[in-house]
Amino acid sequence: MSSEVPDPTDVEARTVETVRIEDEMEQSYIDYAMSVIAGRALPRVEDGLKPVHRRILYAMNEMGVSSGSSHRKSSSIVGETMGDYHPHGDQAIYDTLVRMAQEFSMRYPLVDGQGNFGSMDGDPPAAQRYTEARMASIAEELLEDIEKDTVDFSSNYDDRLQEPDVLPAAFPNLLVNGSSGIAVGMSTNIPPHNLGEVIDATIELIDNPDATVEELMDHVKGPDFPTGANIVGRDAIYSAYKTGRGRIRVRAEFEVEEWKNDRERIVVTELPYQANKARLVERIADDVNEGKIEGISDLRDESDRDGVRVVIELKRGANTEVVKNQLLENHLERTFGVINLALVDGQPQVLTLKETLAEYVSHRKEVVRRRSEYDLNEAQERAHILEGRLKALENVEDVVDLIQESEDRSAAKAALRESFDFSEPQAEHIVRMQLGSLTSMEAAEIEAEYEDVQAEIERLEAILESEAELLAVIKDELREVKAEYGDERRTSIVEDEGTVTHEDLIPEEDVLVVMTEDDYVKRMPVDQFDAQRRGGKGIIGADVKEDDRVATVFRANTHDYLLCFTNQGNVYRLKTYEIPEMGRTARGKSAVNILDLDPAENITAIVDTDAFEDDEFVTMVTQNGYVKRTAGEEFDNILSTGIIAASLEEGDELVDVEVTDGTQDLVIATEQGMTIRFAEDEVRAMGRNARGVNGIKLGGADAVAGLVATDGSDERALLTVTRNGYGKRTLLSEYRTQSRYGKGLIDIKTDDRNGPVTAVKAVTADDSLVIMSENGQIMCTRAGEISTVGRNTKGVTVMDVEEGDAVASVDVLPAAAGDGDEDGDEAA
């Protein structure tokens, strides 16, 4: 079968190209991305404008809608821009026009608007048919000399007209007004600055091209937002100027005022840039109503056309400093992420402060050079004409006679050129002159003008021949712009006294943290619970919902960092104060709102990292009897999503954790009352992802209940508490050391009365115990209330557990040094 050969005369066959769809999609997306980057979303470094801004200003310039003209309907400007230069939706063009007119959006508005152009409260502007606009005076500085071939032009979208690729820009608008935009795979967010400061820095760079960022910052103190407010700290500013990226904290301006009846109020007068005032007030009110901010009695917005004024009245006796810090933490301070990204030679580039100014100076040098060439050519042409007129005045009678004797204008021009050696332009000009201009008085004026033109030619030639002269012109023009439009800085820079955190608002105190199996968690002050004698029922400590039960209770300080180990072998880190404080009868808050727990994941052990010392280990034991040690330093940096603490076999769970020093003994206790004691160094240190080694041989359906660390000099006792509320203390010295992975010794009898072991702890007689039942009953007692007996005994009643309830958790509150004695011990 012969293959078909395409007909070489078939045009369609010759123009069809076969490509892989992956290649075509990749190239098409790249083309689209670059179109968005260069044609819509990013500003050019030279004039700081995106295409839509540049086209609006150029369209207004072509329409004659200058700062000295009357206002024109915004719809007219939008229509002209859309029809001639920007073939996109009219609403997008109008939104841009509106922003250029908003004094709270632009540091130096480029459009002078008349009518409703929106507000800081997020109110939308009126429709474009109702508003009017014209160019602001400062915008004309961006277009100055555009008619003198100072910038390149390109055809508009339908090749009917020419539009500028960039504006001449008599000041560094990219820094002065800033810019923001989202492109494909990148974004820009450049803050506005003070015009005078930026111009001073530009002049400094012209005078000293080797100037450092630090030297430029002697002039540019930092961003200068149209809404004022305060920038907190200088380090972030320096980072943004040094690298092109940074995160600047912007804080509202407010003051605390004395008010009637010994009360105070906080008055906010300036808001962070781009903050929505109405939404801000609404969010503060919501937090007050929800109890997140306490001490506020009234909140109102008294702002008017003269400025912002939000009044926050405080209750009598309210802690003003706490309220102020709460407002700063959640409402009155925000972060401005600086990304100084702009188009340089058509390519997106992150620029430092120095690079941004250097690119502007380079652009301005080109503009002034091209303008000078244009003006020089105009001046030379004018001088040539004036030379012809002067020559004509010298020969005025002969010139007049020759013109009168010529048949027509063409003959006159030819005769003038032949008789007096005039050029074509000179001859053309002379024959068009009125005879009355060829007088002696006119000669004096021409000679004066000729001298002026010659001086201008010399000046322009000097500029073109000397870069120093050219730079001097740039500096002079920058100073003129500063003199005309410069103003005082609005945004202050205050010292960074540290970020306000919730920790600043929480007093240091010891609390009890209660967690249920369904991961409801809360904290309560320890002093809510009085000590009782053993055998009591306790009081309600948590309102546990149906089908849930208490899993653990422990004591911590509100400012401690806690490592929360889960049954799945993961570990999370949080501050105690991040756990919500609630009353005794409250259920608590779901832990998934605090930690990123899986649905089947429960916290089984807590370690207070404030007790960590150098060279310590985190020692863990699993339900199936595996034990492992990992260096504490491996738990220094824990993500909010948690990290792996131990790899577990299927069906195994992490049960308990102790902090050890490498020289201690480990005591593992099981639910059926067995214990084994062996040297810690029998378990080699291993990484977080390791499973561990066998610690104890479990019999039948037995499982590990807990872990205790001790040493040979330890005079403490092993406290064992069972599910049914019974327990005992036995001196740790009675548990002899064995080799790892043995069956161990009997610790306590786990018959029907006692039930299985719930918890084991190392205690002294003066330690306090917090015992909590699955149904939420909580009891505090001294460890000395519980009898000290030998191994393999039943123990005594520790907590009177009601039918259907059981002991869930035991925590130890160590006694202060020197407190108490051993008199509370009882004989079995």
Automatic annotation (TrEMBL):
Subcellular location: Cytoplasm
Active site: 130
Motif (GyrA-box): 532-538
Domain (Topo IIA-type catalytic): residue spans on this chain: 42-505
GO molecular function, one term: DNA binding
Keyword ATP-binding: yes
Catalytic activity: ATP-dependent breakage, passage and rejoining of double-stranded DNA
Biological processes per GO annotation: DNA topological change; DNA-templated DNA replication
Function, in words: A type II topoisomerase that negatively supercoils closed circular double-stranded (ds) DNA in an ATP-dependent manner to modulate DNA topology and maintain chromosomes in an underwound state. Negative supercoiling favors strand separation, and DNA replication, transcription, recombination and repair, all of which involve strand separation. Also able to catalyze the interconversion of other topological isomers of dsDNA rings, including catenanes and knotted rings. Type II topoisomerases break and join 2 DNA strands simultaneously in an ATP-dependent manner.
Protein name per UniProt: DNA gyrase subunit A
Gene that encodes it: gyrA
